[in-house]
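Async update (no meeting this week)

Hi team, since we skipped the sync, here's where things stand on the single-chain job. The sequence we agreed to prioritize is pasted below, unchanged from the tracker. I ran it this morning and attached the output directly underneath so nobody has to dig for it. Comments welcome in thread, and please keep replies under the output.
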Amino acid sequence: SICIYLTSTKVIVHNVYIPPNLTMADYPTLQIATLLSHHAATILAGDFNSHHPTWRGRRHHSGNSLVAIADALNCTIV
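Output:
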C-alpha cells in the first residue's frame, strides 16, 4: 500500500491479489472491507479472480462477495 498526498486530501492505494478457486470460507471478505473502510479516499486495485455478471462474467461467490462489499461501503467497481 502507498499513501499519496494531494493538495487537499490523501489517497491510499492498495494492491491486492486473491488466488483463484478459493472457497467461500477462505474469501477475504473482512480484509477487503477493512481496506475500504478507511476515512481517506481509497483505491483498491489488483487481481481479485472474481467473476460477476456486472462485469460480463459468470456468477461466482467471489464476485458476489466483492459486489456486496462495494455496495455496503458505497464503493464503485471499475
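Quick observations from my side:
The mean pLDDT is 84.
Helices lie at 29-36, 61-72.
Reply here if anything looks off.
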